[in-house]
Design a protein that fits this description.
With 183 residues, the protein is an alpha+beta fold. The chain has one domain: Ribosomal protein L5 (50s Ribosomal Protein L5, Chain: A), CATH 3.30.1440.10. 33% of the residues lie in helices and 18% in strands. It is built from 4 helices and 5 strands; from the N terminus they run αβαββαββα. It has a 5-stranded antiparallel β-sheet with strand order 2-3-1-5-4.
Amino acid sequence: MSRLKEKYNKEVLPVLIKELSLKNSMAAPRIKKIVVNAGIGVVARNKELMEAVIKDLATITGQKPSIRPAKASEAGFNVREGMPVGLMVTLRGERMYNFLDRLVSIVLPRLRDFRGLPLKSFDKSGNYSLGLYEHTVFPEVDMGKAGKPHGVEITIVTSSNEVDKSKRLLELLGLPFQKEQKG
């Protein structure tokens, strides 16, 4: 069992049940999945670069990403319908907890000028999204073999439909949020 899942079961779950006055542990908010996206843009035209980005994302997440095609043509961006425009990986179970553990304990502290995750990144359904400018902050990526640095978007999908409950769950799991400004 991963370290973060063990922490959820032993420490976080009892706190959530008590704080939210829940009668059943199954009603407590939990993480359903983590979706990792990477836009590939002009990389899609170069097969070698495309393979490097796919390999890097597979190394980071532990599973092969799926190639996402464009849904519509857009002349301004030189994109035709069906062209590959992004990569996506959906993590569940053990891989999800391992990825989140690495994100919180290794990747976020490595970011330059990091002052905490913004609270405004929650959507109305209680899911949290964050973007990283470079995928090279992950320790699995070999800087010598990595292609051109590209950004990744990480979305943490929770079972709660309320932002406050989701925020509390992620805080207890160790996500470093910015302190709320008073005034």
